[in-house]
Design goal:
24% strand, 157 residues, single chain, alpha/beta
Length: 157
């Protein structure tokens, strides 16, 4: 990945590569998913087994070191990963989370995330939220003029 990329472009490349990685594994990714604690997951993916995976995208060491809220995400997924680019110092990422590393196109799973199963009631609530957000975004593609109204009516975003 070119070192001269600005942070927003780097973040976008890592996010897109992580979402492609999800799809290649049979996971269904949705970007920027708001969760009930008031935070927003960079990516939430649903696996074929019904697990909810959270992926936190980091554009560089400064982004990682200035953000401690990621620990809260564990309560809202079965597995938590960080996605970073090849230039990221991987030693910064704690062993207690999974690690995806990308060159902007291909992504390697460097470390599998440990599984922490969600409680059934929370899983049901999150699956519903995931479905409503994904369906609402798909419907908004068909009706861009009504997208804001749909988001307000669905109350998930």
């Amino acid at each position: 990945m070119p070192l001269d990329l600005a942070i927003p472009e780097r973040t976008l490349l890592v996010c897109r590569a992580a979402m492609r990685h999800c799809a290649q594994r049979g996971w269904a990714p949705v970007a920027e998913v708001p969760i009930p604690c008031g935070r927003r997951l960079d990516i939430m993916a649903l696996t074929p087994e019904g697990c909810l995976v959270a992926i936190e995208v980091k554009s560089g060491p400064r982004d990682y070191l200035s953000d401690a809220k990621w620990r809260e995400y564990r309560d809202w997924c079965d597995r938590l990963y960080f996605a970073v680019d090849c230039d990221f110092p991987q030693a910064l990422i704690p062993e207690e989370v999974g690690l995806l590393v990308t060159d902007g196109y291909e992504t390697a799973m460097v470390r599998e995330a440990p599984e922490t199963r969600l409680a059934p009631a929370r899983r049901k609530s999150l699956l519903h939220r995931y479905a409503v957000i994904a369906a609402g975004r798909l419907a908004a593609l068909c009706d861009p003029a009504g997208a804001q109204e749909m988001r307000a009516a669905l109350r998930c975003e």
